[in-house]
Structure formats: C-alpha cells, structure tokens
Specification:
The complex is a heterodimer. Chain A is α/β, with parallel strands linked by helices. Chain A contains seven helices and eight strands. Chain A starts with a helix and ends with a strand. By secondary structure, chain B is mainly beta. Helices cover 7% and strands 55% of the residues of chain B. Chain B is built from eight helices and 37 strands. The chains are: A alpha/beta, B mainly beta.
C-alpha cells in the first residue's frame, strides 16, 4: 500500500521560483560567521537589456525597502547595472538576478576577490563555483552552498546552517 | 560527594573567563533555522540539525504557534492530538503518554527531556508530567520522536522520545503571564520571561502554580480504600530558570535550575489509586561550541527526586530518594559535503535509597560510547546509521536486611547493551519523501526493579511478605521497523503522511502486584517472596495516516489523523481471564484512534476545536479482593475547544473546555473522566 502511494505521489519536480526569495536570502546572510552587525551593503546586479533581470532587481529592491533586519544588522540594497560591476568595491552581498548567466564567471571572480557573498536563484552558478549560495523556493526551500566559492571569498557559515543545506 | 562541581568546572571556568574560551561556534538557533527552512528543525533524531521533513525517523514537532492555537492546558494535552500517541489521564493530575501501544501507569518506555536533559525519573522508570518545571509559554517546540532512539539518548528511549525545547532568550524575547480559573476548583497562575540582558547574557525564568479537584470516581468501590485517608485535591508548583551567556560569536554557555513539587493522587503501578508527595530538582550546565568542522557540546546535570507515599499496612510512609548525575561530551562533525558523523561519550551515576528498604542505596554507573554516521548518497538518497554501547556497573551500599534471598555479591553486576538505529530516506520528488527505518532500543531495569525491598505483615498470613527487586533482571529490548511516506500536496502547508510500523519488545520487566505468585523461602524463618522479573514479550503493528492543510492565508488550519494498531502480548500467567503481573498491553492499547482539529484565526479572535475518537479498551485494576481484573473503558469521543480574544493591548481572554461531551473513557483510565471548563486572562509581550 505504501509503495502504491509512493508511486502516486512521485509527481514531477516542482519548478523553482524565478524571483529571489529575499526573506530567505536575508536569513542566509544572518548565518555568516561571524554574524554580521551594523549595516549590510548589498548590490543587486541586473542586466538593463534583460527585462526579467530588471524586474527581479526591482522586486528585490522593493522587498528590502529602506532596510531589512538581519539579526542585529540591517540589510540595505542598491541596484547596479552589470556593466558597472567592476566598480562594486565595498559591498558585503551581491544578489545576482536572472539573465546574467554569460557573466557569472566574471562576477563570481569579482565577488571572491572582494570577499562578497553572492546569492542567486540560478543553481548552475553555484554548481560552477561562481556563486556562493543558490536559493529555490518551491514546495520546500532549498539552499545550495558552494564550498569552493565560499572558500575563495573567505566566507564561513555556522555549522548548524551547513548541516541543513546542500553543500557542493 | 556530588561530582557536579567538578564536572561543571570547565563551562563555569569559561563563564568566568569570558571570551577566553575558543570563540568559534553557534548553538542551534531553532527560531532562525526554522524560519529559514520554512519548517521546524530538530536535533532529536540523530543529534545533527535536520529539517522535520528530512528527519531519519518519524517525528512530530509541535511549534509555539501550534501550542498557542491548541485548546490543551498542558504538554500531554498537546501531544495527544497526534497519530500513534495515546494519553492516559489516570487521575486529575497524573498522566502517561504512550507511543505505539503499551498504555500503562508509570510508563517506563518513553524518555522525556527538557533541552536534552532528562526529566524522566530513573528510580522507577516514569515521567511525572506535573514536574517538568516549565510553563507552556517557555516552550519553543516539542519534538516527539516515535520509535526507539536509545542509540542517541541511551536507556529508556524505547517506544519514543519527547524532547521539549525552551525559548533561547538570546534569540527570542517574551513576557507572559496567565491567571486561569475553571470548574472543579481548577486554578492556575503562571509567569514567564525571556529577555536579552545585554552584555551577551540572556535569562529565561518562569514559575507556575496549579490546583484542581480530584476526579470524583477515584472513591469508587471497585478499588481498595485509599491509603493515608480520603482523597485530596492535587496541587503543583514549579520554578525554573536558565541563564545564557555568549562566549564569543560561536560559543554559548547555559546554566539551568528548576524545582517542582506535586501533591497528587495517582493510579500507581500496582493498578490502584495511591497518593504521592513528590519533589523534583534539577541543576545543569551545557556548553555548545561551533568549530570549523562541526559542533561540540559538553553537558552536565544532576536530578534529585524525593517521593513520599503513605502505605497504611506499613503504618508509615514509603520514601524514595533518587539522585542522578549525567556528564556527556558530543562532537558533531561534517567530514565533507556528503558525510556527517557524531561521537558521544556519557557518564551516568544513579542511586536510589528507598525507606524502608535495604539500608544504604542501590546504585549503578554507566559509561557509554555512541556514534552516528549520516551520508548523502547522490541527489536523492540519505542513509543514517547510529549505535551506542552502554556499560552498566551495579552495586549496593549498606547492608541487606533479612529476610531476603540475595547476598551482597548478587548486587555486584556488570552488563553491556547495544542500541542501534538505521534509516534510509529517498526523495521521490521535490514534494515526496519515503523512509525506511529500523531500531533496537534498550530499556534499563529501574533501580526499583533492581534493588528495592518492602517487607509487610499481612493480616491473616502467618509469614511476612517480602516484595523486592531482583539485581539479575535483564534489560528489555525493543526491535522496531517502519516504512513512511510524506507528501507535500501544496505550497502552504498541505501535507499527507502514511506510516506503517512493527515493534516487538522482549524481556518486559514486571513489578509484583496483587495476584503475583509468591514463593515460600527461608527454612528456619519462612517468608513469602515475590520479586520483579522479566515476564515476557509484547508486539504492536499498525498504520498511522495524517493529513493537514492551511487555507485562506493560514487563517484556517485543519488536521486529521487515524491510527490503527494491533497489540499482542505473551506474559507469564496471562490466561486471558486472569493475570499474575500488572501488564495487559494487548487490552489497554486502543485499536482505532481518529483525531481531528480545526482552527481559525482572524482579527482579534482565535477559535479551535479538537475531537478525538478512541475505540473501546480495557484496563487492569487491583480489586478490593487483591486480584487483578480487567475493567471496560468505553469508546469515547472527546471534544476540546478554545476561544481566545485579544482585549486591549497585549491582554487576552481565553475560554476553553476539555471533554465537552463528558465521555467517561476519554482519559483511558478506570477512573471516569469529567467535563472541565476554564477561563483565563493572559498578558503576552
């Protein structure tokens, strides 16, 4: 009976949401070690030529508003065109919107050079080691962390967090 | 001398040294991790933090929000809403929780902990649910693991484990106070506070008081007269506190203490009403430290139980004084992205002094080594193996009063037990998970069954009767297997879970009662002798089905679960019509349970209704004729309800009712259940 039920419920995989779940992303940031305090500066990188990318960037900015509490810190975001990415400098977090697939390699290198946490919905960016964290928010939240990208960016997460997520 | 000060020296030294301890690890932040993953997180299955949906065993997690919505007034009332769980409310104050069968007073098969520290009492092997030391407002979540889990927690996590996690004041701030009154003389007052004190200190403190009238049917002529005079109304009070200190960003030290006192009528293990005056005090410390490879936990605690119960035939009170000390170290390590291991060491020192028993104390020490390996196999499979070896050394201090059949040498005994758990989980799709699990759990003989002694002069009997423990008694072993399937059928909390299980316990430990045969011992000075012993086996198998959902943006929540369970036992002297031992698991385990709950929250109002149907069962009782007899427990439909209204600011009014239809069998007790109503004013910040 259980096997029959298993077959019945083995439905096709649920498609990941395209837009970044900012609430989950902000919580991910709170599990950095050491825990962030004060202001967390995040940039939302988007491609002005890609309407989906522009829309996602606007959605992220809208959700964060004037600032989002992340533990005892506050997350603030700034939109930035991918063409200006080389000038990113002092940011703590980089949200990579959809539509930047062709430049993930370059953006990942910038982030790792500047010790910036990269968060995206694109799992392939994490699988390639360019991004540190991928978030999908289907039926269940799935968080994937790239060990090599974190190491390259000199970023650490708490042990309990890493035991709950998928690390590759 | 207590070892506590010595064992606590490491964490306390850390406290005094402030950040001098290595600064690199975070304790499990249940609030944040649960919010992150969108579901409760637990460490009670393997020691590793896991999402509830990915746990290696069947688990129910009751969140603070579930507690807020429930009409239940206590922890047992909360857990009884779930599949596979029976709650017997024997008297107005005494309850027992059974998982997957085996309803009996003083259930020794379920290990109960608060923040991983046992409140289960080893002297007899029982949990007094009135002595938890905490209030409902203190609770972050209640984790109920079904099936054996002594590979993680050690002895007595046999049919399951309930681990109650309290609020961490460094992560959650709360002030709550409740004043409640009801029918049958019910009154309750409680206050809880959880606050970040600044300077990396946090404090959780609470206190509570409860009283009510005893169930009227306790004076029934079906029972022998109560010892110590007529019935009285039970009262309880408890205080507890936990002081948290962050030592750097990744280390946390917690010092805890609680004291609880109960004065209550009980349906005792001899299967008749009795009285208990009980005190339970616990102190402890735990240090958690994150490292680059995982987490380290060092824990030490001491429990002291003092019980007094009147016994007319003795002309004095019986006394039990039980002291437990536990010290443990656990290391949890991520070897790589796919493999996590845990290694634990534990030392336990346990002693019981019963008066009038043998002079001195019966004691044991346990040294235990445990290990767990959790491995992701590809994208969709996860395997977990866990094992634990406990090495127990029994001894006796003082002397042996005569008459007895034992010598001091009989109490010098060593034995070693093995507990094990294994599971395989398969992600069939993003929404569907299947699980297969097996387990071997170990129930230690209690100190009472190993070394108690009570000599009685029975009117009309020419020889004294000596009822005693037996130091050669073996641990009871439970083998368990289960298959489970869970499916999320929408994105807002709709879930379906199906579980099939089989449990078999052998070497069940029986304590002598009315009807237990006595042998004539002692050639020169004859006496009648009866002692605890391993009396047989018990098995259960069944199905659990649960469906739940949230609708209208979570304003409505509903759940429905059904449990079908078969139980069989092979116990010495059980002819089906007469019993020699106070065990009738096959009759006391309900075959069908159907439970439903619906809750609505909107604006200032919260309304919840819960219903539980339980099929007919029977219970064993000791009759006035000193025999064991079965009595029928009627099938019952118990309906509980709650209506809460926010008044002004943070002040609220709650009206609640329990067993509104007055079903006499609702408590599974031979003492008829009653309808009870209550009203409370509460303040929550």
């Amino acid at each position: 009976m259980l096997l029959c039920a298993a077959a019945a419920f083995a439905a096709p995989a649920y498609a990941s949401a395209i837009e970044l779940n900012v609430a989950v992303a902000s919580r991910v940031i709170s599990f950095l070690d050491p825990r962030p305090t004060g202001q967390i500066a995040a940039v939302v990188l988007f491609d002005p030529a890609n309407s989906a990318s522009v829309a996602e960037a606007a959605a992220i900015e809208r959700q964060v508003g004037n600032g989002l509490a992340v533990g005892k810190a506050t997350l603030r975001v700034t939109r930035m065109s991918v063409r200006q990415a080389s000038a990113i400098g002092t940011a703590d977090v980089m949200f990579l919107t959809n539509g930047l697939k062709d430049r993930q390699d370059e953006l990942g290198a910038i982030a790792q050079r500047n010790s910036i946490l990269t968060i995206t919905t694109d799992l392939s960016c994490v699988q390639a080691g360019h991004c540190a964290v991928a978030i999908s928010s289907g039926a269940r939240v799935q968080i994937t962390v790239s060990r090599s990208a974190c190491r390259a960016a000199r970023l650490k997460f708490g042990a309990a967090f890493l035991m709950l997520v998928k690390e590759i | 001398m207590s070892r506590l000060p010595l064992l606590l020296s490491l964490p306390v030294a850390g406290w005094l040294c402030g950040t001098a301890l290595p600064a690199s690890a975070q304790a499990v932040d249940y609030t944040e991790l649960s919010a992150l993953m969108g579901e409760p997180v637990t460490t009670s299955v393997t020691g590793k933090p896991q999402r509830a949906s990915e746990a290696a065993a069947s688990i129910v997690i009751i969140t603070a929000d579930d507690i807020r919505r429930s009409p239940a007034r206590d922890v047992v009332g909360l857990v009884q809403a779930y599949a596979g769980i029976d709650v017997a409310r024997w008297t107005a104050a005494q309850s027992d929780v059974s998982i997957r069968g085996g309803v009996q007073p003083y259930n020794a098969r379920l290990l109960v902990l608060v923040n991983g520290q046992q409140v289960y009492q080893d002297h007899f092997g029982l949990t007094n649910w009135q002595l938890l030391g905490i209030q409902l407002d203190d609770i972050q979540q209640i984790e109920v693991v079904k099936g054996p889990n002594s590979a993680l927690f050690g002895f007595n996590a046999v049919s399951g484990v309930i681990n109650i996690i309290t609020i961490n004041p460094l992560q959650t701030r709360r002030i709550a106070a409740t004043a409640e009154a009801g029918t049958h003389g019910y009154a309750r007052a409680s206050a809880s506070v959880a606050a970040d004190l600044g300077g990396d200190f946090g404090l959780r403190a609470s206190a509570g008081y409860r009283r009510t009238e005893e169930l009227h049917a306790i004076s029934s002529s079906r029972f022998p007269p109560l010892d110590g005079g007529g019935p009285f109304d039970p009262t309880h009070y408890e205080v507890s506190g936990e002081l948290y200190r962050k030592l750097g960003s990744r280390t946390q030290l917690t010092l805890s203490a609680s004291h609880a006192s109960a004065r209550q009528q009980e349906f005792i293990h001899l299967l008749l009403p009795g009285k208990g005056f009980e005190k339970f005090t616990t102190t402890g410390a735990r240090l958690t430290h994150d490292t680059d490879w995982g987490a380290l936990t060092i824990r030490a605690y001491r429990n002291q139980t003092d019980i007094r119960t009147p016994l007319d035939v003795l002309g004095r009170d019986l006394e039990y004084h039980n002291r437990i000390f536990v010290g443990s170290v656990d290391a949890l390590a991520r070897l790589d992205a796919a493999n996590t291991v845990r290694i634990g060491l534990e030392f336990r020192d346990n002693s019981l002094r019963d008066v009038p028993g043998y002079p001195g104390a019966i004691k044991y020490t346990v040294h235990a080594l445990s290990a767990m390996w959790d491995r992701d196999i590809g994208e969709a499979l996860t395997a977990t193996l866990a094992g634990r070896v406990d090495h127990l050394r029994l001894r006796k201090t003082g002397t042996l009063d005569q008459p007895t059949i034992f010598t001091m040498a009989d109490f010098r005994r060593l034995f070693t037990t093995l507990s094990a758990n294994g599971s395989l989980r398969a992600k069939l799709s993003e929404r569907t998970t299947a699980r297969a699990a097996i387990g071997r759990g170990v129930q230690s003989p209690s100190l009472f069954s190993l070394g108690s002694r009570l000599a009685l002069d029975i009117p009309g009997v020419p020889f004294p009767l000596v009822s005693a423990g037996d130091p050669s008694i073996r641990p009871a072993i439970l083998w368990s297997g289960e298959l489970g399937l869970a499916h999320d059928w929408n994105d807002h909390g709709g879930k379906l879970e199906l579980i099939g299980f089989y449990n078999r316990t052998h070497d069940i430990i029986g304590s002598p009662a009315s009807g237990t045969p006595a042998t004539l011992e002692g050639a020169s000075a004859p006496f009648l002798w009866q002692a605890a012993r391993n009396v047989g086996s018990f098995e259960t198998w069944g199905l659990e089905a649960t469906i739940e959902d949230r609708i209208a943006a979570s304003r409505f929540r509903w759940s429905l679960n059904w449990t079908w369970m078969n139980a069989q036992q092979a116990i010495e002297g059980d002819t089906g019509a007469s019993f020699q031992w106070p065990i009738a698991f096959d009759r006391t385990t309900p075959k069908h349970k159907l439970k439903a709950q619906i809750s609505y929250e909107g604006g200032r109002f919260l309304a919840t209704m819960a219903a539980r149907y339980t099929s007919a069962t029977q219970q064993l009782i000791s009759t006035p004729q000193s025999t064991l007899a079965l009595v029928d427990i009627n099938p019952s439909l118990a309906v509980d309800a709650k209506l809460a209204v926010k008044l002004r600011g943070r002040l609220g009014l709650e009206l609640a009712g329990e067993n509104l239809g007055g079903a006499t069998g609702a408590g599974l007790s031979p003492i008829a259940s009653e309808r009870r109503l209550r009203a409370a004013f509460s303040y929550r910040y």
